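Progress note, sequence design subtask.
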């Protein structure tokens, strides 16, 4: 193009466009300043070249216009791979990559691949929007590209690849080196497009037709038709199920949600912090990603999709409960990528076949996916026990895919941490025994009315990805040779997989102002601490979490302890009272109940260090050997409750914790023994850490006490759970621990499951039986509790026993 037209067009590009995202950023682009730089675009595009030229000049990168200053070369600084054209007959030239003249020179040079995306949309025909809006997998003509620049000028992404050095590829044959370089670049560009745009989407109706016509669904229809059902009617029902389930991801809605959610987060939250996404971006190019976040709020659905879109990744298809498929909200979520499933479809074989096939087709084609392994939102703030349904269907789909060499699949654990959630009041009502309200469009209006309230910051932390193939190699070694659609090893492996994912989620928890304040304040006897003591305790907790003692890798707050307390006050989570002798920070009963939810988000990080600290409450001096003998049998139930690793060497972990607590000034070493420090401040700090685990120990002790007093074979699971819950509720009222989460029935269910898995109790004719092993474990646990606590627990359980026996005694009188 003549220079007289190029200059004004470049000026228009500068004025009209805005680069929303550039990866890596200019300061992280590993360019060698001593080598000439040749930028390579995936296809000829004047708009891309002009935008790149402007961007390089603005950020001090090597220029992208003009000619390379090389001998015997007149090559531009920015070139494009030739577009692939249809061959009419063999031997017709399709264009040659323009590197030959650079290869023949003796000068070293670095090639920098650059992908430019003008907006982003799945590759699907969306009518007029598809014409105007954004890049897709289809090639674009000049007119359509011009319209796309007009529409998407404020939504441009630039993806830089790692520099490629030609001399490393050169083997003496310039044409062959040229082809090799072009092939490597095309592979890179294809992977980048897959990561950003996702796989090429099929139309929703085409997907549903394919699901209904699949062998698995047809086989189920044939089996049901043998029971006097009409095959035609069953096929219509399967198609109806497909329309009920399938997503309808559309670019207009994605674009709308991206803009709307940006405004929502800016109004609702002070910011969204994202950690650990770089590894996921690398995997997205050639892996199918399955995001498995913790489920704390309805906002989770929207937040993760927004973060991924903002960070240059394709938003996933999201498995959502059918309860969200309501007027107004359901169609919007469906077009944003949600597909809906019923809570249970065990008795509906046809629905199960349709859903399984739909899920398999999404995974087989490489669409990123998201679902919550907990099933529902956590009302207590803890990770819930994983539900096996979606995990089992994913593994079965993986087995089918691997038999045809599809893309490998990877689970991506995601921790989402809030400083304040929208559902505070509803969670407390439900934990107190209230029924869950059915979702309705009116809930959206209620949320809109609360947007002016402060909600603090949000953290999205990405855990260590878990490749499915590698996981199965470790836990089901013969899976590659097993051709069964439902192998025997599937059920136990799904259980192990769920635990592994919850631990990886918990491992990257986010400490923030609210959960730290809750950890410290709720450990005090009366939910109140002096301001100076609270700041010291917050600093201590951060140092403890950042030490090897925790064995995890949480993110820490950027604020100082003083700023954390100020934020908690601003969010109405605590109260600060001025006093002449020093300010006091306290929580009302209502605030304490809310703080307990946020404390439970991260309590697992300190479970074992708190257990060690608590061990010094009943005895002044303990050795490592004694602690190991005392705590090892008690740790598995607690580890299951908190969803943390229980397989690590206990002696090594305890030694590391003792060493850290000595360094923090909490313990002193005397030969082979350890004792609390002599200072009053040090003892108080150690006691506050130990109190964090006390509610869990009390709950466990109460349940075992109820079981032992009742006798082997006397109780079923439901009765034991209810009696233990009632006793915990009574204990909570007597001890000032009236937060509903303290007597959450799900905690007792988890403990009973753990006792069964450890072999301490077992079921016979729906009754729980035990032997001397449980009695010995109870005696060992009592050594951890001081005399006053043992007496209180025994008194509460005895009162309960008398209350249960009294009616029968009265009825027995004549």
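Output:
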């Amino acid at each position: 193009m003549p220079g007289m037209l190029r200059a004004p067009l470049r000026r228009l590009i500068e004025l009209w466009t805005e680069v929303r995202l550039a990866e890596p950023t200019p300061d992280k682009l590993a360019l060698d300043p001593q080598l000439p730089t040749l930028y390579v675009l995936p296809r000829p595009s004047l708009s891309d070249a002009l935008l790149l030229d402007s961007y390089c000049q603005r950020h001090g990168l090597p220029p992208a216009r003009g000619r390379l200053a090389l001998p015997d070369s007149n090559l531009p600084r920015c070139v494009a791979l030739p577009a692939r054209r249809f061959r009419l007959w063999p031997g017709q030239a399709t264009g040659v990559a323009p590197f030959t003249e650079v290869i023949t020179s003796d000068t070293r040079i670095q090639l920098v691949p650059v992908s430019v995306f003008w907006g982003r949309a799945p590759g699907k025909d969306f009518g007029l929007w598809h014409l105007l809006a954004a890049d897709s997998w289809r090639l674009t003509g000049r007119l359509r590209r011009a319209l796309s620049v007009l529409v998407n000028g404020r939504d441009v992404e630039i993806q830089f690849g790692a520099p490629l050095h030609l001399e490393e590829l050169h083997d003496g044959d310039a044409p062959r080196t040229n082809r090799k370089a072009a092939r490597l670049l095309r592979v890179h560009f294809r992977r980048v497009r897959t990561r950003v745009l996702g796989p090429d989407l099929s139309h929703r109706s085409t997907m549903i037709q394919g699901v209904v016509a699949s062998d698995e669904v047809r086989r189920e229809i044939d089996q049901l038709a043998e029971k006097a059902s009409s095959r035609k009617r069953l096929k219509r029902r399967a198609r109806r199920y497909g329309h009920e389930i399938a997503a309808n991801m559309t670019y207009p809605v994605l674009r709308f949600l991206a803009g709307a959610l940006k405004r929502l987060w800016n109004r609702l939250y002070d910011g969204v912090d994202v950690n650990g996404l770089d590894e996921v971006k690398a995997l997205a190019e050639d892996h199918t990603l399955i995001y498995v976040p913790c489920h704390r709020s309805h906002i989770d659905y929207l937040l993760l999709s927004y973060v991924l879109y903002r960070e240059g990744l394709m938003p996933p298809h999201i498995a959502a409960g059918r309860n969200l498929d309501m007027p107004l909200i359901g169609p919007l979520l469906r077009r944003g990528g949600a597909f809906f499933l019923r809570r249970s479809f065990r008795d509906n074989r046809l629905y199960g076949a349709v859903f399984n096939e739909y899920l398999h087709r999404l995974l087989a084609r490489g669409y990123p996916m998201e679902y919550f392994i907990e099933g529902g939102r956590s009302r207590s703030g803890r990770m819930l026990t994983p539900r096996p349904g979606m995990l089992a269907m994913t593994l079965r789909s993986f087995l089918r895919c691997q038999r045809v060499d599809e893309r490998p699949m990877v689970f991506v654990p995601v921790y989402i941490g809030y400083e304040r959630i929208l559902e505070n009041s509803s969670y407390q009502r439900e934990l107190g025994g209230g029924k869950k309200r059915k979702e309705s469009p009116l809930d959206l209006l209620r949320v809109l009315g609360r947007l002016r309230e402060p909600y603090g910051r949000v953290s999205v932390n990405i855990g260590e990805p878990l490749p499915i193939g590698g996981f199965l190699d470790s836990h089901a070694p013969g899976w590659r040779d097993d051709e069964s659609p439902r192998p025997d090893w599937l059920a136990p492996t799904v259980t192990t997989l769920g635990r592994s994912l919850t631990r990886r989620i918990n491992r990257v928890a986010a400490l923030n102002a609210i959960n730290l304040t809750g950890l410290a304040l709720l450990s005090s006897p009366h939910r109140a601490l002096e301001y100076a003591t609270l700041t010291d305790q917050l600093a201590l907790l951060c140092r403890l979490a950042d030490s090897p003692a925790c064995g995890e890798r949480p993110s820490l707050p950027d604020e100082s302890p003083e700023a954390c307390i100020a934020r908690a006050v601003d969010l109405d989570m605590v109260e600060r009272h001025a006093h002449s002798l020093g300010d006091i920070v306290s929580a009302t009963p209502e605030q304490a109940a809310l703080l307990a939810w946020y404390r439970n988000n991260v309590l697992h990080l300190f479970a074992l260090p708190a257990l060690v600290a608590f061990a010094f409450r009943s005895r002044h001096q303990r050795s490592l050997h004694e602690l190991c003998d005392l705590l090892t049998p008690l740790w598995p139930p607690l580890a299951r409750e908190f969803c943390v690793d229980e397989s690590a060497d206990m002696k090594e972990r305890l030694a590391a914790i003792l060493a850290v607590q000595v360094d923090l000034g909490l313990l002193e070493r005397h030969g082979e023994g350890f004792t609390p420090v002599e200072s009053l401040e040090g003892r108080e700090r150690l006691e506050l850490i130990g109190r964090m685990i006390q509610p869990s120990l009390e709950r466990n002790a109460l349940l075992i006490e109820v079981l032992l007093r009742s006798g082997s074979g006397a109780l079923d699971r439901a009765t034991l759970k209810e009696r233990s819950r009632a006793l915990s509720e009574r204990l909570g009222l007597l001890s000032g621990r009236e937060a509903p989460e303290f007597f959450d029935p799900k905690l007792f269910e988890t403990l009973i499951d753990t006792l069964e898995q450890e072999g301490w109790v077992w079921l016979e004719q729906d009754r729980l039986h035990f032997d001397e092993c449980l009695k010995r474990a109870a005696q060992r646990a009592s050594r951890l509790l001081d005399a006053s606590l043992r007496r209180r627990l025994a008194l509460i359980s005895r009162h309960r026993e008398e209350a249960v026996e009294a009616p029968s005694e009265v009825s027995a009188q004549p």
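Residues 86-94, 123-133, 806-814 have pLDDT under 50 and may be disordered. Work on this subtask will continue into the next period as scheduled.
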